Amino acid sequence: MKWRLAASALALAPLLATAAGDPAAGRKLFASCANCHSVGPAARHGFGPHLQALAGRKAGSAAGYAYSPAMKASGLVWNEATLTAYLRDPNAVVPGTKMRYWGIGINEAKVADLLAYLAAQER
């Protein structure tokens, strides 16, 4: 029983880390994402997949979006660390990804803000 609690805490750690972000700052950052992605209860796929319930989601798994074979096979699970690395250089993290993004000076603090904004849209 104790190991289950510990495993659950470890699994939630990446999601809890995003609570430190600033949703208002994340909203401003998301403006550069909104050309291709949507978020919120009515989110739909566009040029890119919707980002609803992104934290903790396996990359390439949102139903109904035509992901690249590379993204489907990446094995990534979206959290602060994986999203930071991916947004810094998508093609280095997932060679063959369809995403074309050249960054906005992404760092851990900006990703925390972005994830805080995304999490706030799930309510």
Tags for this model:
mainly alpha; 123 residues; disordered N terminus; single chain; Cytochrome Bc1 Complex, Chain D, domain 2; globular; 44% helix
Describe this structure as you would to a colleague.
- The protein has a single domain (2-120), classed as Cytochrome Bc1 Complex, Chain D, domain 2, CATH 1.10.760.
- Residues 1-18 have low confidence and may be disordered.
- The protein is built from 6 helices and no strands.
- With 123 residues, the chain is mainly α.
Named CATH architecture: Orthogonal Bundle
Average of pLDDT: 82
- Poorly predicted runs are 1-18
| Helix/strand order | HHHHHH
The biggest beta sheet, please? none
The helix-and-strand class reads mainly alpha
Give the overall form. Answer: globular
Mind telling me the CATH class? Answer: Mainly Alpha
In the CATH hierarchy, the third-tier topology is known as Cytochrome Bc1 Complex, Chain D, domain 2
> Gap between N and C termini, in Å?
31 Å
Considering the protein shown, what is the CATH homologous superfamily?
A: Cytochrome c-like domain
Helical residues, percent: 40-55%
| Percent of sequence in beta strands | under 5%
Query: Rounded to an integer, what's the Rg over CA atoms?
Result: 14 Å
Could you give the count of β-strands?
0
What is the total number of structural domains?
1
How many helices? The count is 6
State the gist of this model.
The protein has six helices and no strands. The protein has 123 residues and is mainly α.
